[in-house]
Amino acid sequence: MPHHKLIARLQAVGSLSEQDQLRLTRMPYKVKSVADGEYVVREGDKPGSCIVVINGFLSRQRVVNARNQISSFYLAGDMPDLPTLHLPIADSDLCSVGKSMIAAVPHSSLREMMNESPGLTHAFWRETLIHAAIYREWVENLGSRQALGRVAHLLCELAARMSFVGLADNGNFRLPLTQQDVADACGLSVVHVNRTIQELRNLALIEWESHNVTLLRPEELKAVAEFSSEYLHELDPSGG
Question: In the CATH scheme, what is the code of domain 2-119?
Fold first, then answer.
């Protein structure tokens, strides 16, 4: 059910009333399984619905100067194409990384819910702003850090975002990315990514076997990455 992770995601960065949570449980949707490498949205499409990621990963990407550039990853609970409610033409591709499951919610249903609820309007607007903040952080990561910091920052971000929706446990999480995906996200060659991951392993900062990643010394990894999670805007679970 798409609303479970969506509610968890929205609750991680803001509050939702019980009535708004009930609205989300009742929203109509169409579920689809997506194969590895399958496109969900293509640049130039005019979607009539917004996507909720139920499980798996999606990437936002474009081919720039013959090179594929990934500009964001989306995981369970994310709605990567909320801007299509107001910007009708998709300006990039959304592609599945590994096998994924998504739900498509009609624009008309989302608009109806938002007309009924200022709280949901605020929640979706906040979510759009947070993804914009993530995008800015990615631009700074690519423009200002060396390879070690870039890859470390990506791992720190994904670990934090996955923990928001219960997909990371004590720094351990499943990551379907290939080294090519990491290269496309970090603006590096596959060879450079391989060397960088080996360096992180040799520093005993991470374990990465198959698709399982463990952050062994997360605070030291954050220092390498110059990572602060403030741009993710998670609420303090303690209420402080």
Answer: 2.60.120.10
Burial 193-232 (b: 16+ CB within 10 A, else e): beebbebbeeeebbebeeeebbbeebeebbebbebeeeeb
- Whole-model pTM: value is 0.93
Tens of pLDDT along 20-67? Answer: 999 999 999 999 999 999 999 999 999 999 999 999 999 999 998 888
| Secondary structure (3-state) at 218 | helix
Closest of 80, 78, 76, 81 to residue 100, by C-alpha:
76
Q: Enumerate the β-bridge partners of residue 96.
A: 58
CB 217 within 8 A of CB 204: yes
The domain limits of the chain are: 2-119, 141-232
Phi, psi of 3 (to 5 degrees): -75, -20
Residue at token pair 């990894």 = 221
Kindly state the percentage of the chain with pLDDT values over 90. 88
Among 41, 70, 55, residue whose Cα is nearest residue 9? 55
